[in-house]
Design brief:
The chain has 12 helices and 12 strands. It is α/β, with parallel strands linked by helices and 394 residues long.
Length: 394
Protein backbone atom coordinates (compact mmCIF):
# COMPACT_ATOMS: atom_id res chain seq x y z
CA UNK A 1 0.00 0.00 0.00
CA UNK A 2 1.50 3.30 -1.12
CA UNK A 3 1.44 6.12 1.41
CA UNK A 4 0.72 9.41 -0.33
CA UNK A 5 1.31 12.92 0.92
CA UNK A 6 -1.64 14.48 2.71
CA UNK A 7 -1.89 17.27 0.15
CA UNK A 8 -3.02 14.74 -2.45
CA UNK A 9 -6.28 14.27 -0.58
CA UNK A 10 -7.06 17.93 -1.23
CA UNK A 11 -6.61 17.54 -4.97
CA UNK A 12 -9.25 16.46 -7.48
CA UNK A 13 -8.71 15.46 -11.09
CA UNK A 14 -9.57 18.24 -13.52
CA UNK A 15 -13.27 17.72 -14.37
CA UNK A 16 -12.84 19.12 -17.86
CA UNK A 17 -10.09 16.63 -18.65
CA UNK A 18 -12.16 13.86 -17.06
CA UNK A 19 -15.06 14.63 -19.41
CA UNK A 20 -12.73 14.60 -22.41
CA UNK A 21 -11.27 11.27 -21.29
CA UNK A 22 -14.68 9.64 -20.88
CA UNK A 23 -15.83 10.94 -24.26
CA UNK A 24 -12.66 9.56 -25.85
CA UNK A 25 -13.28 6.16 -24.26
CA UNK A 26 -16.76 6.06 -25.75
CA UNK A 27 -15.38 6.94 -29.17
CA UNK A 28 -12.89 4.08 -28.91
CA UNK A 29 -15.87 1.78 -28.48
CA UNK A 30 -17.28 3.11 -31.74
CA UNK A 31 -19.88 5.39 -30.12
CA UNK A 32 -20.51 8.71 -31.87
CA UNK A 33 -19.95 11.38 -29.21
CA UNK A 34 -20.01 15.13 -29.74
CA UNK A 35 -17.64 16.62 -27.19
CA UNK A 36 -18.61 20.14 -26.07
CA UNK A 37 -16.46 19.88 -22.97
CA UNK A 38 -12.88 20.93 -23.65
CA UNK A 39 -11.80 24.55 -23.68
CA UNK A 40 -9.68 24.15 -26.77
CA UNK A 41 -9.91 26.08 -30.05
CA UNK A 42 -10.83 23.95 -33.04
CA UNK A 43 -8.52 26.00 -35.25
CA UNK A 44 -5.07 24.99 -36.41
CA UNK A 45 -2.04 26.85 -35.09
CA UNK A 46 -1.18 29.58 -37.67
CA UNK A 47 1.16 28.35 -40.39
CA UNK A 48 3.80 31.01 -39.77
CA UNK A 49 3.96 29.97 -36.11
CA UNK A 50 4.47 26.32 -37.07
CA UNK A 51 7.12 27.34 -39.58
CA UNK A 52 8.93 29.31 -36.89
CA UNK A 53 9.08 26.16 -34.77
CA UNK A 54 10.58 24.16 -37.64
CA UNK A 55 13.04 26.97 -38.27
CA UNK A 56 14.02 26.98 -34.59
CA UNK A 57 14.86 23.29 -34.80
CA UNK A 58 16.90 23.83 -37.94
CA UNK A 59 18.81 26.66 -36.28
CA UNK A 60 19.65 24.50 -33.29
CA UNK A 61 17.39 26.19 -30.70
CA UNK A 62 16.92 22.87 -28.92
CA UNK A 63 18.80 23.39 -25.66
CA UNK A 64 17.93 24.66 -22.21
CA UNK A 65 16.97 28.31 -22.06
CA UNK A 66 16.88 30.88 -19.29
CA UNK A 67 14.37 29.62 -16.72
CA UNK A 68 12.31 32.78 -17.20
CA UNK A 69 12.20 32.31 -20.97
CA UNK A 70 14.32 33.49 -23.87
CA UNK A 71 14.91 37.24 -23.99
CA UNK A 72 13.26 37.45 -27.42
CA UNK A 73 10.00 36.05 -26.05
CA UNK A 74 10.00 38.16 -22.90
CA UNK A 75 10.67 41.22 -25.03
CA UNK A 76 7.83 40.34 -27.40
CA UNK A 77 5.45 39.92 -24.45
CA UNK A 78 6.54 43.25 -22.95
CA UNK A 79 6.10 44.97 -26.32
CA UNK A 80 2.66 43.39 -26.68
CA UNK A 81 1.48 45.29 -23.60
CA UNK A 82 3.52 48.44 -24.17
CA UNK A 83 1.94 48.92 -27.59
CA UNK A 84 -1.60 48.38 -26.29
CA UNK A 85 -1.47 50.37 -23.09
CA UNK A 86 1.35 52.87 -23.55
CA UNK A 87 3.42 51.30 -20.79
CA UNK A 88 7.12 50.77 -20.26
CA UNK A 89 7.18 47.09 -19.26
CA UNK A 90 10.64 45.55 -19.43
CA UNK A 91 11.62 41.88 -19.98
CA UNK A 92 12.64 41.80 -16.30
CA UNK A 93 8.93 42.08 -15.47
CA UNK A 94 8.00 39.04 -17.58
CA UNK A 95 8.33 35.30 -17.10
CA UNK A 96 7.32 32.69 -19.68
CA UNK A 97 6.46 29.16 -18.66
CA UNK A 98 4.62 25.99 -19.56
CA UNK A 99 1.23 27.58 -20.08
CA UNK A 100 -0.63 30.14 -18.02
CA UNK A 101 -1.55 27.31 -15.65
CA UNK A 102 2.06 26.89 -14.54
CA UNK A 103 2.44 30.59 -13.80
CA UNK A 104 -0.81 30.59 -11.82
CA UNK A 105 0.43 27.67 -9.74
CA UNK A 106 3.86 29.23 -9.27
CA UNK A 107 2.16 32.39 -8.06
CA UNK A 108 0.31 30.45 -5.40
CA UNK A 109 3.59 28.81 -4.34
CA UNK A 110 5.31 32.19 -4.21
CA UNK A 111 2.59 34.25 -2.52
CA UNK A 112 0.45 31.98 -0.34
CA UNK A 113 1.51 30.48 2.97
CA UNK A 114 -0.42 27.93 5.01
CA UNK A 115 -3.73 29.41 6.19
CA UNK A 116 -3.45 32.48 3.95
CA UNK A 117 -6.75 33.24 2.25
CA UNK A 118 -7.29 33.65 -1.47
CA UNK A 119 -10.55 35.22 -2.65
CA UNK A 120 -12.04 33.56 -5.74
CA UNK A 121 -15.33 34.64 -7.37
CA UNK A 122 -17.55 31.72 -8.35
CA UNK A 123 -18.18 30.32 -10.92
CA UNK A 124 -14.43 29.90 -11.26
CA UNK A 125 -11.99 28.08 -13.50
CA UNK A 126 -11.61 24.60 -12.02
CA UNK A 127 -7.92 24.90 -11.11
CA UNK A 128 -8.06 28.14 -9.11
CA UNK A 129 -9.21 26.69 -5.75
CA UNK A 130 -7.31 23.45 -6.30
CA UNK A 131 -4.02 25.27 -6.69
CA UNK A 132 -4.67 27.30 -3.55
CA UNK A 133 -5.41 24.16 -1.56
CA UNK A 134 -2.32 22.32 -2.83
CA UNK A 135 -0.07 25.00 -1.32
CA UNK A 136 -1.99 24.95 1.97
CA UNK A 137 -3.98 28.14 1.48
CA UNK A 138 -7.70 28.62 2.04
CA UNK A 139 -9.94 29.49 -0.93
CA UNK A 140 -12.60 32.02 0.01
CA UNK A 141 -15.40 31.67 -2.50
CA UNK A 142 -17.58 34.64 -3.48
CA UNK A 143 -20.77 33.34 -5.08
CA UNK A 144 -21.92 35.42 -8.04
CA UNK A 145 -25.47 35.48 -9.35
CA UNK A 146 -26.57 34.55 -12.84
CA UNK A 147 -29.35 37.11 -12.46
CA UNK A 148 -26.64 39.81 -12.28
CA UNK A 149 -24.72 38.36 -15.20
CA UNK A 150 -22.18 36.89 -12.78
CA UNK A 151 -20.90 40.42 -12.15
CA UNK A 152 -18.32 40.83 -9.41
CA UNK A 153 -18.13 44.11 -7.50
CA UNK A 154 -15.71 45.75 -5.09
CA UNK A 155 -18.30 45.53 -2.32
CA UNK A 156 -18.52 41.76 -2.69
CA UNK A 157 -14.75 41.52 -2.45
CA UNK A 158 -14.57 43.96 0.47
CA UNK A 159 -17.01 41.87 2.49
CA UNK A 160 -14.67 38.86 2.32
CA UNK A 161 -11.39 40.57 3.21
CA UNK A 162 -9.82 39.55 6.51
CA UNK A 163 -6.40 39.94 8.06
CA UNK A 164 -5.49 36.64 6.38
CA UNK A 165 -6.40 37.71 2.84
CA UNK A 166 -3.36 37.55 0.61
CA UNK A 167 -4.54 37.23 -3.02
CA UNK A 168 -7.60 37.85 -5.18
CA UNK A 169 -7.90 35.82 -8.40
CA UNK A 170 -9.94 37.37 -11.20
CA UNK A 171 -10.65 35.89 -14.63
CA UNK A 172 -12.13 38.04 -17.38
CA UNK A 173 -13.54 37.11 -19.81
CA UNK A 174 -14.59 34.27 -17.57
CA UNK A 175 -14.21 30.58 -18.01
CA UNK A 176 -16.91 29.18 -17.58
CA UNK A 177 -19.52 31.95 -17.73
CA UNK A 178 -18.18 34.26 -20.42
CA UNK A 179 -18.79 37.21 -18.07
CA UNK A 180 -16.66 40.30 -18.66
CA UNK A 181 -15.69 42.58 -15.76
CA UNK A 182 -16.45 46.22 -16.55
CA UNK A 183 -13.66 48.80 -16.45
CA UNK A 184 -15.11 50.78 -13.53
CA UNK A 185 -15.69 47.65 -11.45
CA UNK A 186 -12.21 46.37 -12.21
CA UNK A 187 -10.50 49.62 -11.29
CA UNK A 188 -12.45 49.88 -8.04
CA UNK A 189 -11.51 46.31 -7.14
CA UNK A 190 -7.86 46.88 -8.04
CA UNK A 191 -7.64 50.05 -5.96
CA UNK A 192 -9.34 48.34 -3.02
CA UNK A 193 -6.86 45.48 -3.09
CA UNK A 194 -3.91 47.84 -3.44
CA UNK A 195 -5.04 49.77 -0.38
CA UNK A 196 -5.42 46.53 1.59
CA UNK A 197 -2.06 45.04 0.55
CA UNK A 198 -3.74 42.29 -1.49
CA UNK A 199 -2.29 41.09 -4.79
CA UNK A 200 -4.69 40.81 -7.73
CA UNK A 201 -3.85 37.90 -10.02
CA UNK A 202 -5.67 38.79 -13.23
CA UNK A 203 -6.11 35.94 -15.71
CA UNK A 204 -6.99 37.36 -19.12
CA UNK A 205 -6.47 34.26 -21.23
CA UNK A 206 -9.63 35.01 -23.25
CA UNK A 207 -8.97 38.74 -23.63
CA UNK A 208 -9.65 38.92 -27.38
CA UNK A 209 -12.89 36.95 -27.37
CA UNK A 210 -15.60 39.53 -26.62
CA UNK A 211 -18.91 40.07 -28.44
CA UNK A 212 -21.82 42.43 -29.08
CA UNK A 213 -19.80 45.56 -28.40
CA UNK A 214 -18.39 44.36 -25.08
CA UNK A 215 -14.90 45.60 -24.29
CA UNK A 216 -12.18 43.76 -22.46
CA UNK A 217 -10.88 45.77 -19.50
CA UNK A 218 -7.42 44.69 -18.40
CA UNK A 219 -5.83 45.23 -15.01
CA UNK A 220 -2.75 45.98 -17.10
CA UNK A 221 -4.15 49.49 -17.49
CA UNK A 222 -3.14 50.21 -13.88
CA UNK A 223 -0.09 47.97 -13.80
CA UNK A 224 2.42 50.76 -13.20
CA UNK A 225 0.18 52.85 -10.97
CA UNK A 226 -0.76 50.02 -8.60
CA UNK A 227 2.45 47.99 -8.67
CA UNK A 228 3.22 45.55 -7.07
CA UNK A 229 -0.46 44.73 -6.47
CA UNK A 230 -1.20 43.70 -10.07
CA UNK A 231 -0.07 40.44 -11.70
CA UNK A 232 -1.19 39.61 -15.23
CA UNK A 233 -1.40 36.01 -16.46
CA UNK A 234 -1.97 35.19 -20.10
CA UNK A 235 -1.36 32.42 -22.61
CA UNK A 236 -0.77 31.56 -26.25
CA UNK A 237 -3.23 28.67 -25.94
CA UNK A 238 -6.55 30.27 -26.86
CA UNK A 239 -5.60 33.39 -28.80
CA UNK A 240 -3.18 31.59 -31.10
CA UNK A 241 -4.69 28.07 -30.96
CA UNK A 242 -1.51 26.75 -29.30
CA UNK A 243 -2.89 24.65 -26.45
CA UNK A 244 -0.43 21.81 -26.91
CA UNK A 245 2.59 24.08 -27.28
CA UNK A 246 2.34 24.99 -23.57
CA UNK A 247 3.39 28.64 -23.52
CA UNK A 248 1.98 31.16 -21.08
CA UNK A 249 3.35 34.04 -19.04
CA UNK A 250 3.05 36.34 -16.09
CA UNK A 251 3.80 40.06 -15.96
CA UNK A 252 4.52 41.46 -12.52
CA UNK A 253 6.82 43.52 -10.33
CA UNK A 254 10.45 42.34 -10.76
CA UNK A 255 10.50 40.99 -7.20
CA UNK A 256 7.57 38.70 -8.00
CA UNK A 257 9.13 37.64 -11.29
CA UNK A 258 12.36 36.71 -9.50
CA UNK A 259 10.37 34.57 -7.06
CA UNK A 260 8.55 32.82 -9.90
CA UNK A 261 11.84 32.26 -11.70
CA UNK A 262 13.36 30.68 -8.61
CA UNK A 263 10.45 28.21 -8.41
CA UNK A 264 10.51 27.49 -12.12
CA UNK A 265 14.25 26.81 -12.05
CA UNK A 266 13.63 23.90 -9.69
CA UNK A 267 10.56 22.45 -11.39
CA UNK A 268 10.44 22.54 -15.19
CA UNK A 269 13.67 24.53 -15.71
CA UNK A 270 12.14 26.26 -18.73
CA UNK A 271 9.37 25.99 -21.27
CA UNK A 272 10.10 24.18 -24.53
CA UNK A 273 12.72 26.16 -26.43
CA UNK A 274 10.99 25.39 -29.72
CA UNK A 275 7.60 26.52 -28.44
CA UNK A 276 9.15 29.74 -27.17
CA UNK A 277 10.47 30.65 -30.61
CA UNK A 278 7.09 29.80 -32.12
CA UNK A 279 5.43 32.09 -29.59
CA UNK A 280 7.71 34.97 -30.59
CA UNK A 281 6.51 34.60 -34.16
CA UNK A 282 2.89 34.52 -33.04
CA UNK A 283 3.15 37.65 -30.94
CA UNK A 284 5.08 39.60 -33.57
CA UNK A 285 3.50 38.41 -36.82
CA UNK A 286 0.57 36.12 -36.03
CA UNK A 287 -2.25 38.35 -34.87
CA UNK A 288 -4.19 38.24 -38.15
CA UNK A 289 -5.52 34.79 -37.23
CA UNK A 290 -7.29 36.19 -34.16
CA UNK A 291 -9.91 38.00 -36.22
CA UNK A 292 -10.85 34.84 -38.10
CA UNK A 293 -11.44 32.97 -34.85
CA UNK A 294 -13.54 35.77 -33.36
CA UNK A 295 -15.67 35.89 -36.51
CA UNK A 296 -16.33 32.15 -36.34
CA UNK A 297 -17.04 32.17 -32.59
CA UNK A 298 -19.43 35.11 -33.01
CA UNK A 299 -21.40 33.22 -35.64
CA UNK A 300 -21.61 30.09 -33.50
CA UNK A 301 -22.59 32.04 -30.39
CA UNK A 302 -25.29 33.91 -32.29
CA UNK A 303 -26.86 30.61 -33.32
CA UNK A 304 -26.25 28.60 -30.14
CA UNK A 305 -27.67 30.87 -27.44
CA UNK A 306 -31.23 31.19 -28.82
CA UNK A 307 -31.20 27.52 -29.89
CA UNK A 308 -30.46 26.37 -26.34
CA UNK A 309 -32.96 28.84 -24.89
CA UNK A 310 -35.71 27.18 -26.94
CA UNK A 311 -35.19 23.88 -25.12
CA UNK A 312 -37.68 23.66 -22.22
CA UNK A 313 -35.89 23.73 -18.87
CA UNK A 314 -32.73 25.43 -20.13
CA UNK A 315 -32.12 29.09 -19.34
CA UNK A 316 -29.28 30.43 -21.48
CA UNK A 317 -28.20 34.06 -21.34
CA UNK A 318 -25.78 35.37 -24.00
CA UNK A 319 -22.23 35.51 -22.63
CA UNK A 320 -20.14 38.60 -23.33
CA UNK A 321 -16.85 36.80 -23.83
CA UNK A 322 -14.75 33.60 -24.08
CA UNK A 323 -16.21 30.70 -26.10
CA UNK A 324 -18.56 29.06 -23.60
CA UNK A 325 -22.20 29.27 -22.63
CA UNK A 326 -23.26 28.43 -19.10
CA UNK A 327 -26.98 27.57 -19.20
CA UNK A 328 -28.97 26.98 -16.05
CA UNK A 329 -30.38 23.44 -16.07
CA UNK A 330 -31.57 23.09 -12.47
CA UNK A 331 -35.22 23.34 -13.53
CA UNK A 332 -34.79 19.81 -14.89
CA UNK A 333 -33.61 18.36 -11.60
CA UNK A 334 -35.84 15.75 -9.96
CA UNK A 335 -36.63 14.46 -13.43
CA UNK A 336 -35.81 10.79 -13.96
CA UNK A 337 -33.38 10.77 -11.07
CA UNK A 338 -31.43 13.86 -12.17
CA UNK A 339 -30.53 15.88 -9.09
CA UNK A 340 -27.31 17.69 -9.97
CA UNK A 341 -25.29 19.14 -12.82
CA UNK A 342 -23.14 16.00 -12.74
CA UNK A 343 -26.08 13.64 -13.16
CA UNK A 344 -27.52 15.88 -15.90
CA UNK A 345 -24.19 15.83 -17.74
CA UNK A 346 -24.03 12.05 -17.35
CA UNK A 347 -27.57 11.77 -18.73
CA UNK A 348 -26.64 13.82 -21.81
CA UNK A 349 -23.57 11.69 -22.39
CA UNK A 350 -25.49 8.41 -22.05
CA UNK A 351 -28.71 9.43 -23.76
CA UNK A 352 -27.66 12.10 -26.29
CA UNK A 353 -24.00 11.19 -26.75
CA UNK A 354 -23.11 14.82 -26.05
CA UNK A 355 -20.40 15.70 -23.53
CA UNK A 356 -20.72 18.86 -21.42
CA UNK A 357 -19.03 19.82 -18.15
CA UNK A 358 -21.03 19.88 -14.89
CA UNK A 359 -21.29 23.34 -13.33
CA UNK A 360 -20.31 21.85 -9.99
CA UNK A 361 -16.75 21.68 -11.34
CA UNK A 362 -16.82 25.47 -11.46
CA UNK A 363 -18.55 26.01 -8.13
CA UNK A 364 -22.14 26.29 -9.38
CA UNK A 365 -24.29 23.16 -9.44
CA UNK A 366 -27.27 24.77 -11.24
CA UNK A 367 -25.50 25.09 -14.57
CA UNK A 368 -23.42 23.19 -17.13
CA UNK A 369 -20.68 24.53 -19.37
CA UNK A 370 -20.93 24.10 -23.12
CA UNK A 371 -18.02 25.02 -25.36
CA UNK A 372 -18.71 26.36 -28.83
CA UNK A 373 -15.11 25.88 -29.92
CA UNK A 374 -16.34 23.39 -32.48
CA UNK A 375 -17.99 23.62 -35.88
CA UNK A 376 -21.46 25.08 -36.35
CA UNK A 377 -22.50 21.82 -37.99
CA UNK A 378 -21.59 19.83 -34.88
CA UNK A 379 -23.22 22.41 -32.61
CA UNK A 380 -26.49 22.06 -34.52
CA UNK A 381 -26.34 18.29 -34.29
CA UNK A 382 -25.50 18.46 -30.57
CA UNK A 383 -28.34 20.84 -29.74
CA UNK A 384 -30.76 18.63 -31.63
CA UNK A 385 -29.62 15.65 -29.56
CA UNK A 386 -29.84 17.63 -26.32
CA UNK A 387 -33.35 18.81 -27.13
CA UNK A 388 -34.49 15.26 -27.87
CA UNK A 389 -32.90 13.91 -24.68
CA UNK A 390 -34.45 16.64 -22.52
CA UNK A 391 -37.88 15.96 -24.03
CA UNK A 392 -37.69 12.41 -22.61
CA UNK A 393 -37.32 13.65 -19.02
CA UNK A 394 -40.42 13.37 -16.90
Amino acid sequence: MVRFAGRLSRLETSPTLAVAKHAAELRKRGIDVIDLGPGEPDFATPENVCSAAVRAIGEGHTRYTDSNGILELRTAIADYYNERYGLDVSPAQVIAGNGGKQELFNLMLALVDEDDEVIIPSPYWVSFPQQVEIVGGSPVIVDLSADDGFRVTAEQIRSEITEHTRVLILNSPSNPTGAVIGREDLREIAELCHSEGIIVVFDETYEHFVYDGAEHASAMEWFEELSPSIVIVNSMSKTFAMTGWRIGWAVAHPDIIRALGKIQSHTTSNASSISQWAAVEGLVNGRESIGKMIEAYSERRAWLVPALAEIPGLDCEPPSGAFYVFPRVSELYSSSGIDSSASFARYLLDEARVAVVPGSAFGNDEHVRISYATSLELLKEAVGRIGEAVSKLA
